[in-house]
Amino acid sequence: xxxxxxxxxxxxxxxxxxxxxxxxxxxxxxxxxxxxxxxxxxxxxxxxxxxxxxxxxxxxxxxxxxxxxxxxxxxxxxxxxxxxxxxxxxxxxxxxxxxxxxxxxxxxxxxxxxxxxxxxxxxxxxxxxxxxxxxxxxxxxxxxxxxxxxxxxxxxxxxxxxxxxxxxxxxxxxxxxxxxxxxxxxxxxxxxxxxxxxxxxxxxxxxxxxxxxxxxxxxxx
Length: 221
Prior knowledge:
This protein is of the alpha+beta class. The chain has four helices and twelve strands. It has helices at 29-37, 105-117, 169-172, 206-220; strands spanning 13-16, 58-69, 72-80, 91-92, 95-97, 124-129, 133-134, 139-148, 161-168, 179-183, 192-199, 202-205.
């Protein structure tokens, strides 16, 4: 697969999703536990990249770590290094490809999290998983959602992660912060809309923003 070079900050704004924010009451620990234990009927919003001609066979998993601070929950994210083969310099959840040593995709997410940001699985209370998300790089990604209670220790692997940061969950679970941008691709390639959720100096977009949209829908229905 050809590696594309582009700056997502330059993608023109098409529209704002604009749905109402998830109620703060639904972002509390007990409500989150109840929702994952008894999931409702809902429809995932998985925008499949037009470059994907067949369903990817390669499996991967990421951890969506919700940090339960006393002042309110946050989502822990990473800024990938600029030297990686895929998604270099982008915002992502810790995670990666499944390996034969992983008994489940949850194990994949936890192992990759330990490797990428040094967060031991002992700190992660897994709630469940969201539907698979297909990426243009040929992966079918399972997002695993877990709670983390401070204090905890993390240390980025400098070969993969340039920075670890947190974003308030109230910000991410608000449709007014969900932008639709036109992804401008090289001539001859089909254009597409992608989600973006700019926060301070971090530009969250693409598959990460798409999985956040599905978490938003899952919590608000």
